[in-house]
Write a structure and sequence with these properties.
3 strands; 3% strand; mainly alpha
Length: 356
């Protein structure tokens, strides 16, 4: 029971209060961009994961200082600190300084081959390295454990990237995270590889819900967006739960599925699939504003050559999240949807990339 109380205080209440107080400042100072409806929102809600991490770390060490035994769920999550911190930091840097001119695994690798490290490439490599570091620290005990190390690394890194691909509409990534968290908790119980049960399992669930509860209303209310910082952090958190809860045979299957879905995202529009299904479309739109969209001009990246026509639209921020359109294939969707109002430029940051 004490562990549940600690989770509520340090992982739910403190992040909730801090983000409620921070939101007005973000609204005034954080870079803004047009979302998929043309509403100008700030990109910075992903900072909640830094707040969550600091609060979690402070709470864990406070217990040690007071000579109180740390609950099992804290021992479990403490290993995740570097990956979450890195995911949030790299994501926030890409949110505020990145540009979608170069997209996808292929685009970032090609740029790297020519000596150019993009912010998206830095994020992908950084999260991958931290995932490998975590896998080695947890599971490497000789040559016979190399397979599990590789699989755990892939699950965490690919999950971080995949969650980013769902951040196309207000609340969509957070709904996927909520579903993923429920599935992860069930897998922990079913396979029993993680020794958490009873109050510790309940505390883990509350801890995982903390960042979501803190920013859900701002995201769905179209006041801000979680950005790469939030989406990558959510994906890394879920990836850690899956990687530690699944046996090797299930990890192989998980890596295969994650890899296929990540690669397909470069050719298949997730938004098209969701909107074509009545049930998925209803769930996806739940809680979201339903006012008609407003076509907006695509923002211009710093490395683009400014012209008289586009110089005035560069105020939307350097990294217009995919909600400003959708993924790469949704660019055409938005043109079709808004053709009655105005034509959206295809050259902007409407598109989402893999491993951005």
């Amino acid at each position: 029971m004490f562990g549940v109380l600690a989770a509520i205080v340090f992982c739910v209440v403190i992040p909730f209060v801090v983000m409620a107080m921070l939101a007005p400042s973000l609204d005034k100072t954080a870079p803004k961009t047009g979302n998929f409806r043309g509403v100008q929102v700030y990109n910075g809600l992903g900072i909640v994961w830094f707040v969550w991490l600091i609060s979690f770390w402070a709470g864990a060490h406070l217990l040690v200082t007071l000579h109180i035994q740390q609950p099992a769920w804290i021992h479990y999550l403490i290993h995740l600190f570097p990956v979450l911190a890195g995911s949030c930091a790299f994501g926030l840097f890409d949110d505020w300084a990145g540009c979608n001119v170069i997209k996808g695994f292929k685009g970032h690798l090609k740029a790297l081959a020519h000596g150019q490290l993009t912010t998206g490439g830095l994020k992908f490599l950084g999260i991958g390295f931290l995932s490998l570091f975590l896998a080695l620290s947890l599971y490497y005990h000789g040559a016979d454990t190399i397979l599990r190390v590789v699989l755990v690394t892939c699950v965490i890194a690919l999950s971080a990237n995949l969650m980013n691909l769902f951040d196309l509409r207000p609340g969509r990534a957070q709904k996927m995270y909520l579903l993923g968290l429920v599935v992860a908790l069930v897998l922990i119980v079913v396979f029993g590889l993680v020794e958490l049960k009873g109050w510790d399992l309940a505390a883990l669930a509350l801890a995982g819900l903390g960042p979501l509860l803190a920013v859900w209303r701002f995201d769905l209310g179209e006041r801000g967006m979680i950005g790469d910082a939030g989406a990558n952090s959510m994906g890394a958190f879920l990836g850690f739960l899956y990687a530690t809860a699944l046996p090797v045979w299930a990890l192989v299957l998980a890596v295969a599925v994650l890899a296929v879905v990540n690669l397909l995202s470069e050719r298949v529009s997730f938004s098209k699939i969701i909107e074509a299904n009545a049930i998925l479309s209803s769930l996806d739109a739940w809680g979201r504003k339903k006012e008609p969209g407003i076509a907006i001009a695509a923002p211009v990246c710093a490395q683009d050559t400014p012209t008289a026509d586009n110089a005035s639209v560069n105020t939307a921020g350097p990294n217009n999240k995919e909600r400003a359109g959708a993924d790469e294939n949704d660019e055409n969707d938005k043109n079709d949807e808004n053709s009655k109002d105005s034509q959206i430029s295809k050259g902007g940051k409407d598109s989402k990339e893999v491993g951005k």
